Amino acid sequence: MNIENSIEALNSLIEINNDRIEGYKTAVDQTDEADLKNLFSECIKTSEKCKSELVSEVRHLNGTPAEGTKTTGKIYRVWMDFKALITGKSRSAILNSCVYGEEVARDAYMDALNTCSMDLNDQQIALLKTQLAMLKADFTKVKGLKELATL
Predict the structure, then answer these.
(1) What's the angle, vertex CA 128, arms to CA 110 and CA 101, rounded to 5?
(2) Mean pLDDT of the chain
């Protein structure tokens, strides 16, 4: 197990949760629909919980938790596209962007579990699997509303 690699993997997921929080805060501000505001608020709470747990784990490893969002790469572009699309307040556009953002977040967790598992201890792997299940539950809700919006 490599502690530095563990910290790096966990910090990457902190940044993804920060991206997710910021994206959903923007979505809440841009929609007037109560059901979307409620769902997006739930998604924010999920990522705040995940982030808090990840920060605690990084500190437990004597690392410095990441504080910002990703500013390069795929995650950044996803959320920037998300923010641009929601300005039209189109329910379908908002939900399409959310689904795409959820897929990227889910993929980041799966990637961390697949490529960093040798650098993570059993407790960290269990934590990431639990968080991934929470993200998948949010994804199912968002995708369900998206499918209804396109009927």
Answers:
(1) 50
(2) 86
